Amino acid sequence: MTMVSAYAYYSCLDYAPYTNRKRLICTSPQWEQEMGHKQYKELLQTFKGDVLPPNHRASVTVQRVGSRIAAAAQKFSMQYGKKDNKVGASVYTYTVVRSKEANAFVLPGNHVFVLTGLFRYAHNEDDLASVIGHEMAHNIARHAGERVSEGIMMTILSRLALILDPTGILFTLLVPAQTLLISLPHSREHEIEADKIGILLASEACYDPRASKLVFSRMRDDGGNRSATATPPEWISTHPGYDTRLSYFDQWMPDAMDRYNRDGGNKCRAIREEMKRARKVAAMMHNKVDDGKR
Whole-model pTM? Predict the structure, then answer.
């Protein structure tokens, strides 16, 4: 049993891209993508009726911003990812859902979802890029695979606990200990890692990385205005506190700004002019659609 456990441990040992964080991941990129494709189809049915059409201005904007972040993610994967990691192989899809909830996520298989409540905090393309960059970072770092692997390991440990102690006392102690000491810290670690990679992706795609601080500051301020007890203490939360995240952004910002201003800012200056022209075209198309409805 010991030899089998040791073999399982070392065969699942891996390192996260860019941060080189040591981790256990037992799933393959191919399996993760298959699960992502399946969940994508299920979510399309769940959100049916609330999915905005592709020519809606919000959909056009999300696809435009997402495509630039996706290109940066592909470059990132080639530079920092493993050769057998095919995260960027699938074509990206972009789905915008009419909802009061402020959320966005990217499923394995490169399926990007944005819920329109997010626009309370993401006021422009730089803001939106900071959020999509964060969510794509979760995807290319394969955090979903880590969570599944953690669940597999926990199942094995739980069964071993019941074998060693049929009374169930050890199992009863194991579950909350695992949540507080492993699952929640790992979840917060994933969020910090996605923040770090996310601003790198945004800056490489020529979006202002300083927008990330603005978005999280708005979320923090809005959370405080809504309820003083809305946010749980960090140690029992899946996400780090806003102040913790903002302090990390301060640490990473010099490098992100160097990337953003690379080549004396010439590269991003030209690209941002292209973005400006694209926004004008999108606005004109949106106005034509509105005129046609009258």
Answer: 0.89
Task: Cite the active site residues.
Answer: 135
Q: Which two tokens stand for residue 241?
A: 């506190």
Q: 140-172 pLDDT, tens per residue? A: 999 999 999 999 888 888 888 888 889 989 889
Q: With contact defined as beta carbons under 8 Å apart, do 98 and 116 qualify?
A: yes
Residue in the block written with tokens 């606990």? 161
Locus of tokens 């630039």: 68
Report which of 166, 184, 163 is spatially closest to residue 175, judged by C-alpha positions.
Answer: 184
How far CA 149 is from CA of 25, 183, 185, 225, in Å, comes to: 5, 11, 15, 38
Residue 150, both tokens: 């953690």
Of 144, 135, 20, 34, which is closest to residue 89 (Cα–Cα)? 34
For 221-241, write each residue's pLDDT tens digit: 987 555 545 567 898 999 999
Instruction: Return the DSSP state at 179.
Output: I
